[in-house]
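Hello support,

Our group uses your service weekly, and this is the first time we've seen a run hang past the timeout. The protein is DUF1876 domain-containing protein. I'm not sure whether the cause is the sequence or the server load. Input pasted verbatim:
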Amino acid sequence: MIVMMHTTVGWHVELEFTEDDQHTRAVAMVRLPDGTEVRAHGHASRHRVDSRQPRVGEEVAGARALNELAMQLLTKAHDEIDAASGRTSHPIHV
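Update from on-call engineer: The timeout came from a worker crash unrelated to the input. Re-ran successfully.
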């Protein structure tokens, strides 16, 4: 038996970074099919004795922004489950 999966929706996540000598900030944004935009922020700081590695700062700040974005999406889904069911559902864990 062959099961074929079809993509019915796709999400595009955007990440933007701003940096100075010590800090990297990231903003992650996803636009959902219903038009809702969810945004989250992440931050990384370079210790003054560490060498300057912008890519590492982007990875840390980006990961933190994506983690926060994931938590916001889980909360949104949880709230929608509760609204549709009329009851308080079990927490959604990562």
